[in-house]
Amino acid sequence: MKKKTLITLLCAGVLTAGAVAGLAGFDDKEDAQKGSGEYMLLSTAEDDEDEASEGKVEEAEVDGGEVQATGAITGVEDVAREVQPAVVSITNKSVQEVQDLFGMYGMYGFGWGDGRGKTYTYESESRGSGIIIGQNDSELLIATNFHVIDGATELTVGFVDDEMCKASVKGSDDDNDLAVVSVALSDIPDDTLSKIKVAKIGDSDDLVVGQQVVCIGNALGYGQSVTTGIVSALNRTIKLEGYDNTKLIQTDAAINGGNSGGAMLDMKGHVVGINSAKVASAGVEGMGYAIPISYAKSILEDLMNKKTRTEVVDEDQSAYIGFSGKEISDELTYLYGIPEGIFVEEIADGSPAEAAGMKKGDIIVKFDGEEVTSMDDLREKLAYYAAGEEVTITVSRSNENEYTETKLNMTLGSSPDQE
Q1: Which of 19, 292, 342, 368 supports an S-S bond with 204, CB 3.0-4.6 Å?
Q2: If residue 354 lies in a helix (H) or strand (E), which one and from where to where?
Q3: Looking at the structure, do residues 173 and 295 belong to the same domain, yes or no?
């Protein structure tokens, strides 16, 4: 019998998570001091020139002395000491749905059950990690994988001193398995702020095969652990959703559940990759994969600059789109290859949907960059947006038996006016 080689996202037991390191900067020093302006993940050279920028948290205190980012790093222990204060754990509480297979197919074939099956929900808790990539005037920004925060009803971040704080999703990109979460600075004790730091990013384009790398992450949810290895190969592709077109870094450093999304570091302590997947199969060892940081950089910058939405808007400011639709079932997706999302049945005359170019038969797959799979899901997200805001809605449109994605720019309408 043939053995299967399985590439996984390391979600067994703990929700795998990520340390993405990068120094957050601003357009200029004045913006950095004000905590305003757009964020950028700066290159290593720029980081070294402005080590005292007020746009980042203070350097970590280790063994009674200040860790200097420009200090000499001579081994794995120095890399770990330099970067661990920037690594956090992430706990994701979510609600999962399971189907009663006995009710669907009959208990052991004896005809028990009604043949329809029932769906049950239960709360699950999973753990991963992330890395601090910057802060603004009100929140700390942390990068991780999308599958770390996927479906979260509650997120908690744990810092290097074991302090735990509530977190919110700032932005996510499921197509590239990346996300940014935020923690309100007002929720973080001053003592914790003095111990954490912002890590720098390197340039993954400069990597060579055989180069030593260090990986840090929340392995199996037990807390921070450090592994080391080499760059085994570059520009690898794997057959996994979200990674079809990404050229990945292959490493033999140990990567386990909880490490996915963790930082792959060069020997200067700069992040060069985001650990995200591994080959899990009997007889296979040391085949982990990381998203190159040079590829992830622009995506993370976009996510960092999204508005954090934690409060539902007032009723008099509530927004609407102007269409009716229904969820695409798993069966239709499986049998006919129809994309998951919301099938548009009708579009209201004079609605924002009509003005944006939405068509009957479109399948809404994303709202403002966030994946949506049902009308309830869309309503929940829309509740945080006010009328008049501009959003991008991604639809999958049939074209000669093929579906292609189209982005529609839309100005949300006012629900009170619509009524």
Answers
A1: 292
A2: helix 352-356
A3: yes
pLDDT tens per residue across span 332-349: 888 888 888 999 999 999
Last residue of a domain, which of 304, 339, 354? 304
| pTM for the predicted model, two decimal places | 0.74
Three-state DSSP at 137 gives coil
Question: Which of 47, 147, 266, 396 is labelled catalytic?
Answer: 147
- Choose the catalytic residue: 47, 150, 174, 177: 177
- In the Cβ-directed half-sphere of 80, how many Cα atoms lie within 13 Å? 12
Active-site position among 89, 182, 260, 318: 260
Active site residue 260: yes
Does the active-site annotation cover 270? Answer: no
pLDDT per 10-residue tile (average), the chain, 419 residues: 55 37 31 42 40 38 38 81 90 73 50 54 81 88 89 89 93 89 94 91 94 92 91 91 83 88 90 86 84 92 87 90 90 85 93 94 92 90 92 90 89 79
In a domain, 25, yes or no: yes
Number of domains in the chain: 2
Cβ contact 136:32 at 8 Å? no
State yes or no: is 415 an active-site residue: no
Same domain, 253 and 297: yes
| 235 and 287 share one domain | yes
Q: How far apart are CA 245 and CA 236, in angstroms?
A: 10
- On whether the CB atoms of residues 212 and 228 are closer than 8 A, the answer is yes
Same domain, 335 and 198: no
**Most distant pair of Cα atoms in the chain: their distance:** 74
Per-residue confidence (pLDDT) for residue 97, from 0 to 100: 64
CATH number at residue 82: 2.40.10.120
pLDDT for 26 equals 25
**DSSP-assigned letters across all residues of 179-248:** EEEEEEGGGS-HHHHTT--PPPB--GGG--TT-EEEEEE-GGGSS-EEEEEEEEEEEE--SSTT-TT--E
Which are the contacts of 224, defined by CB distance < 8 A and separation ≥ 6? 84, 87, 89, 129, 160, 216, 217, 218
Query: Are residues 319 and 300 part of one domain?
Result: no
Residue 226 near residue 216 (C-beta atoms within 8 A):
yes
Q: Are residues 239 and 341 in the same domain?
A: no
Domain range for residue 274?
6-62+71-90+129-304
Q: Both 283 and 142 in a single domain?
A: yes
Report the distance separating Cα 189 and Cα 195, nearest Å.
10
